[in-house]
Structures are given as structure tokens and as C-alpha cells.
């Protein structure tokens, strides 16, 4: 019996590897949030101030090393190759700084230490240095976590219904159009979201992350917005043709949290502190520190079973595929469940 169980698990894993686009179940899972929490070793919920700072210091040292090498040696390289060297530096430095941004994001989830004030000070410094309004992001991102997968209440990455598509979408549904969409998304999507709430939840008036009186925030949050006054990664974990979205008749917190996907970024998984390949766990328990996330993910995968989604498609290939296939969502028959489609 044990051997048969192992064979079944291997078959299931191989099937998912062969077909990463197979839909995950949209029905209520046979386990509860409490069951998932019990499956995780208790020490994974512990936060170490020393360990968290050690990862931050490691990243800051890498930033300095890359800066020193670039500032000292790149100008000595012959001109044709100098451009390649600078481009390589920008990419490498950008990846490390993204890891620092992830630590600031962890502060916003109170996953850096046991002290909220420490988390807020560290997060404010890190995100401000990277031009992200810390408290604004913290509060709007918290609402995203509370409403993931909800077509009506999620804060960002809300797919359009086919009936709501703009007129120009039919002209972008081709290779050249997809290149333009990707270029625009990777270049402008993040600042446009922060400033104009593009791709965010619709409000009855103008919504801006930098405005303390924006409808995004409650009255008690406005002072922090005054004080505080990396899109590919997060976008790719919420945009996948195998993942459902729900309206209010079907949505619940656990199913919404499970409507995310873990992806493999290779070496960058470590550089990004595993926010890439433990994103499902992050949406279930956002306060688990990144250095416990891999262990916790391994612990919950047997329980989640087919409700857990992992896609090891090379990230650039996956980005192209999902941009092409995830244009809008359509409702299942007689259900409040919606799936991505691309046939206009």
C-alpha cells in the first residue's frame, strides 16, 4: 500500500511537470487554514532579529561590492564592451536591490522581527531608498493579501472581464502587440500603479498611493502615509491560466490564497530570498520569515496536494506564454468561478 502511495505521488508530480497549465481545483479544499498551520513545524513561525539583519547586511555588502567593481574597473574597458559591462552591472545590482526590497516587504508583513516598530523603521528606510512609499504599500498590500483572487475586492492584479476589454486589445493580441505590452508592463507598470492605481481596485474617485486622503486608506492610516510619502515577480505569481478567480458568491480567504503559483527563477530564487518559489505559503501565512519559507512550503505541500501549484517553466518563456494566454477571465457555467482566456 505504501509503495502504491509513493507511485501515485510520483505520477501526480510527473503529470504536473508535463502539464503546468492543468487547472487547480476551484472547489472548497478538504482542509482548513488550521490544518495547514498544524502541518508547519512551530519554529517556522519564529522570527530572529539577528538572522534577519544578517541577510540584510549580506545584501548591502553585495551592493557595495558590485558598486566598487563597476566604479573602479568598468571605465577601463574598451568602449564597445563597456556598454555590455554596464548593462551586466545594472542587471546584477538590480537583482540584489530587489532582494533588499523583498526584505522591506517582509517588514511590512511583520516578518522581520518580533518588534513592530523595528520592522516599520527598517522597512521605511529600505523602501524609501528604493522609491517605494513604505506605509502606503504596506496598507494596500495587506488588503491584497486579505482579498487575493477576489474579482471585486482584490487590490491589484485584477483580471478584466471580456465585456470590459478596451477596444485596442484586439490589436495587441499578436506577437508584436505582446512585445509592446511586456515592454510597457516591465517599464511603467510599477510607477503607474503607485501614482494612478493602474491595474488596481476601482474606486469612486482618484486613488494614489502617495495621497494620504486616497480612498485606499482609512482615517487611522493617513498619518503613516504622510510619513512614507518590482512588478514582474508579483505579477507572475498571480497571472496563470491554471488559477481561478472568484466573485463574492464563491470567494473565501483560503481559496483566494491558494490561487497563486510558485515559480522557479533558478539562482535568483536565493537572491530574491525565495519570495518566488514560496509565494503560495506567503499568501497563506505572510508573516513567516523568508529563511523558514522553504521548510514550511515542503511541510504543507503533501496536505495541499492538487491545490498547490508549481510551474518550473523558464521564467522568460512563462512570461511570454502567460501574457499571450491571460488576456481576460470568463465565468464558469452556473458558478462564481472565473478562468483566464485569450480568444477575443
Can you walk me through this structure?
Among the domains are: 41-132, no CATH class; 239-341, no CATH class. The chain is globular. The chain is built from 15 helices and five strands. It has 344 residues and is mainly α. A three-stranded antiparallel sheet has the order 1-5-4, with no helix packed on it. The protein has a two-stranded parallel sheet with strand order 2-3. The N and C termini lie far apart (48 Å). It has helices at 2-18, 33-39, 49-73, 79-108, 116-129, 134-146, 169-172, 175-196, 222-228, 231-236, 253-258, 268-271, 279-284, 290-304, 315-325, and strands spanning 245-246, 262-263, 310-311, 328-331, 337-341. It is found in: Membrane. InterPro entries: FA_desaturase_dom, FAS_N, Fatty_acid_desaturase. Residues 12-64 form the Fatty acid desaturase N-terminal domain. Its main location: membrane. Belongs to the fatty acid desaturase type 1 family.
The span between the termini is 48 Å
Mean pLDDT score: 82
Note the main sheet. Answer: 3 strands, antiparallel
Number of helices: 15
Low-confidence segments = 1-16, 221-229
State which percent range the strand residues make up.
under 5%
General shape: globular
Report the helical percentage.
40-55%
Structural class: mainly alpha
Number of E strands: 5
Strand arrangement within the widest β-sheet reads: 1-5-4
Order of helices and strands: HHHHHHHHHHEHEHHHEHEE
Backbone CA Rg: 21 Å
Amino acid at each position: 500500500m505504501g509503495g502504491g502511495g509513493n507511485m501515485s505521488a510520483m505520477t501526480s508530480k510527473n503529470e504536473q511537470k508535463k502539464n503546468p497549465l492543468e487547472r487547480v481545483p476551484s472547489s472548497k479544499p478538504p482542509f482548513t487554514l488550521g490544518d495547514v498551520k498544524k502541518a508547519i513545524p512551530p519554529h517556522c513561525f519564529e522570527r530572529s532579529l539577528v538572522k534577519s539583519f544578517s541577510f540584510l547586511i549580506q545584501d548591502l555588502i553585495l551592493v557595495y561590492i558590485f558598486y566598487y567593481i563597476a566604479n573602479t574597473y568598468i571605465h577601463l574597458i574598451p568602449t564597445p564592451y563597456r556598454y555590455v559591462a554596464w548593462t551586466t552591472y545594472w542587471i546584477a545590482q538590480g537583482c540584489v536591490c530587489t532582494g533588499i526590497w523583498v526584505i522591506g516587504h517582509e517588514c511590512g508583513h511583520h516578518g522581520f522581527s518580533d518588534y513592530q516598530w523595528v520592522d516599520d523603521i527598517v522597512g521605511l528606510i529600505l523602501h524609501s531608498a528604493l522609491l517605494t512609499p513604505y506605509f502606503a504599500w504596506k496598507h494596500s498590500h495587506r488588503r491584497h493579501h486579505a482579498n487575493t483572487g477576489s474579482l471585486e475586492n482584490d487590490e491589484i492584479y485584477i483580471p478584466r472581464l471580456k465585456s470590459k476589454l478596451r477596444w485596442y486589445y484586439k490589436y495587441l493580441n499578436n506577437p508584436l502587440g505582446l512585445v509592446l505590452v511586456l515592454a510597457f508592463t516591465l517599464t511603467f507598470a510599477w510607477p503607474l500603479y503607485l501614482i494612478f492605481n493602474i491595474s488596481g481596485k476601482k474606486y469612486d474617485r482618484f486613488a494614489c498611493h502617495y495621497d494620504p486622503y486616497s480612498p485606499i486608506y482609512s482615517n487611522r492610516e493617513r498619518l503613516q502615509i504622510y510619513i512614507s510619502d518590482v512588478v514582474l515577480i508579483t505579477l507572475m505569481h498571480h497571472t496563470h491560466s491554471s488559477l481561478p478567480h472568484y466573485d463574492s458568491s464563491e470567494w473565501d480567504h483560503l481559496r483566494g490564497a491558494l490561487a497563486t503559483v510558485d515559480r522557479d527563477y533558478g539562482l535568483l530564487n536565493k537572491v530574491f530570498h525565495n519570495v518566488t518559489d514560496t509565494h503560495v505559503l506567503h499568501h497563506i501565512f505572510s508573516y513567516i520569515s523568508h529563511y523558514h519559507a522553504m521548510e514550511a512550503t515542503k511541510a504543507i505541500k503533501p496536505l495541499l496536494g492538487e491545490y498547490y501549484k508549481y510551474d518550473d517553466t523558464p521564467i522568460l518563456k512563462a512570461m511570454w506564454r502567460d501574457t499571450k494566454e491571460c488576456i481576460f477571465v470568463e465565468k464558469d457555467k452556473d458558478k462564481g468561478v472565473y478562468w483566464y482566456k485569450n480568444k477575443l
